[in-house]
Amino acid sequence: MATFSFPEMLLLSLVMGSFIAASAGDFHQEFELTWGDERAQILDGGKLLTLTLDKTSGSGFRSKSEYLFGRIDMQIKLVSGNSAGTVTAFYLSSEGPNHDEIDFEFLGNLSGDPYILHTNVYSQGKGDREQQFYLWFDPTKNFHTYSIVWNLQRIIYMVDNIPIRVFNNEESFGVPFPKNQPMKLYSSLWNADQWATRGGLVKTDWSKAPFKAYFRNFNANACVWSNGESDCASKTSGSLINNVLRTQALDASGRRRLRWVQKYFMVYNYCTDLKRFPLGRPRECRRSRFL
Ligand SMILES: *[C@@H]1O[C@H](CO)[C@@H](O)[C@H](O)[C@H]1NC(C)=O
């Protein structure tokens, strides 16, 4: 991959700061390990979480809380070396039929070849909205921050605070938008060598197992849903939070960065896959300035 200089990246004026009391950090408090037995571990007094994949099983965790709007950040260091066939997923999802989901999936690769960051949005059970990106750094060397901003008007995917994808609420145009179903945060590391790397051509090399991914500095500036009610609606959190959550958007520099990522790093965009949609592109694709 070519390298791109982008001095503006150094002048990160944050598009979205932290506005509301955040729940930071302790993995013991915030998460439960859901599968993979001892392959999922919380270490360092709750500051670090590791997921492992071996030939027998992958592993995963999920948040104890359910959220309805907010900003979720996680720092992740992905499986290093030959990670072909492995997928590390990090996503928000509701439960039941017609679920909503906001996905990050990291598709591994042979040593030295680039990961693909795969994204998708499901609303009311329907996905098919994939966009894929290369990253502008090696995601296995250091921790990087992956964020989901989710409000009534849009969903913004961010990597190290740089927006890579925006999914706007186009309900007025007949496109369902995730807004009624609270979601938990999930993460897992699993074997997907049927499809993940070069479309399934490169298989997982089990002689390199166990594969490991690392998580830290979880942060949720989010409305927590419990007993049928959002804590952002309550007196203590206040309407300010609600307003902020409703209106977070990209400013001019955010839009510039988004265009930069989409121009140089996007590998796949369902909106431009005309073969796949012979009867016409999905509606939201005809609306959005960012494809
Ligand atoms: C893996 O590397 C190949 C060769 O550079 C590239 O075509 C592919 O997009 C990369 N990523 C995945 C997940 O296949």
From TrEMBL:
PANTHER family: XYLOGLUCAN ENDOTRANSGLUCOSYLASE/HYDROLASE PROTEIN 8-RELATED (PTHR31062). Contains at least one intrachain disulfide bond essential for its enzymatic activity. This is Xyloglucan endotransglucosylase/hydrolase. Keywords: Apoplast, Cell wall, Cell wall biogenesis/degradation, Disulfide bond, Glycoprotein, Glycosidase, Hydrolase, Secreted, Signal, Transferase. Catalyzes xyloglucan endohydrolysis (XEH) and/or endotransglycosylation (XET). Cleaves and religates xyloglucan polymers, an essential constituent of the primary cell wall, and thereby participates in cell wall construction of growing tissues. Gene3D superfamilies: 2.60.120.200. Residues 1-25 form the signal peptide. The keyword Cytoplasm does not apply. It comes from Herrania umbratica. GO terms for cellular component: apoplast. Residues 21-215 form the GH16 domain. Belongs to the glycosyl hydrolase 16 family. Pfam families: Glyco_hydro_16, XET_C. It is found in: Secreted, Cell wall; Secreted, Extracellular space, Apoplast. Its EC number is 2.4.1.207. It is an enzyme of class 2 (transferase). InterPro entries: Beta-glucanase-like (IPR000757), Beta-glucanase/XTH (IPR044791), ConA-like_dom_sf (IPR013320), GH16_AS (IPR008263), XET_C (IPR010713), XTH (IPR016455). It comes from the Eukaryota. The active site is at 101 (nucleophile), 105 (proton donor). PROSITE patterns: GH16_1 (PS01034), GH16_2 (PS51762). GO terms for biological process: cell wall biogenesis; cell wall organization; xyloglucan metabolic process. The gene is LOC110424848. GO terms for molecular function: hydrolase activity, hydrolyzing O-glycosyl compounds; xyloglucan:xyloglucosyl transferase activity. Glycans are attached at residue 109.
